[in-house]
Amino acid sequence: MPGIFSSFKDKFFTTDVSSEEGRSKEKQVEYLISLGVLLWSVAEADKQFLPQEQGQIEMILKKYGDVSDQDMPIILKTIEEANAIRIDLHSFTSEIKKSLERQRRLDIIDQLFRVACVDHDLDGAEHETIRKIADWIGLDHHEFISSKIKIKK
User: Rounded CA gap, 114 and 3, in Å?
Assistant: First the structure.
């Protein structure tokens, strides 16, 4: 997915991406952008992007990406820009599917439901967006349902 990520990577890189450290950081940035776009898409699906949803997204990104408070505004702006130009979510889910084991992908669906339910209302558009994402990252429908039930409790 070099085309999707290339315009955003420069905001994060001070190390040479030909080095081992640089390649590792590059993969981390691609993952964070992919995850962030999925989270952002769910938050926007009901046409109401709430401050609680942004707070939940920030918490999740810190958990998965060790993002500092100083870097968070840059990460969020990058995700917002990537989300605005995305052609479809499928391109972002492919990065998640190929780089994470099943349990981590299940956890991502849990996190998507946490963002969608932070306002205590799982909108139909949010539900459908998460269902598509679960399918595209290779999860079964019963895993999607189990995640929804677990998070809505």
Answer: 30
The C-alpha atoms of residue 147 and residue 18 are separated, in whole angstroms, by 39
The answer on pLDDT for 63 being more than 80 is yes
pTM: 0.80
Q: What DSSP string describes 22-81?
A: HHHHHHHHHHHHHHHHHHHHHHHTTS---HHHHHHHHHHHHHHH---TTTHHHHHHHHHH
The per-residue pLDDT for range 92-138, each reduced to its tens digit, is 788 788 888 999 999 999 999 999 999 888 999 999 999 999 999 99
User: Are 34 and 93 a contacting pair, CB within 8 Å?
Assistant: yes
One-letter identity of residue 56? Q
Q: Which two tokens stand for residue 43?
A: 């938050």
Residue type, 4: I
Q: Please, what is the angle between helix 102-117 and helix 51-65, to 10°?
A: 160
Closest CA to 77 of 31, 115, 32: 32
DSSP one-letter code for 101: -
Helix axes 20-44, 124-136, angle to 10 degrees: 150
